[in-house]
Amino acid sequence: MFEASIAAKPTAEGHTFRGWAISYLGLLDEAIEDCKRAILLDPDFGNPYNDIGVYLMQKGQLEEAMPWLERAKSAKRYEPRHFPYLNLSRIYMALDDKMRALDEFAGALEIHPDDPVALAAIKSLRITVQ
Q1: What does the pLDDT read at residue 128?
Q2: Whole-model pTM?
Q3: For residue 6, which phi and psi values (nearest 5 degrees)?
Q4: Under a CB-based contact definition with an 8 Å cutoff, are residues 48 and 19 in contact?
Q5: Which structural domains are found in the chain, ordered by start?
Q6: Does residue 77 sit in helix, strand or coil?
Q7: Does pLDDT of 8 surpass 90?
């Protein structure tokens, strides 16, 4: 279905969503390439930046994922806008940088105040500031 749609009219959305679909098959490098094609078609579309960050996270390439997630945060056209904040917070938690994780969770809550993931994570963080 994505193939026919993209062949008829290549769009950033089509490439991004095909990448998302094939990522579930474990084809992360191919999914990343689809997202890069999406960015070439529409650099203002934030979803492929976040998705590349997620695929790199899944590959264990946390440092490499961070710039992609930062780009998603500032994209002109992106929904759900709080996702890159949540993904960056996960990276910072994995890197044992709880303060930066907390900042990212707070950023997510500024955009989506009722996000259950961010609310639960903030509640569970035990950070002492001296």
Answers
A1: 46
A2: 0.90
A3: -65, -35
A4: yes
A5: 1-68 (1.25.40.10), 80-130 (no CATH)
A6: strand
A7: no
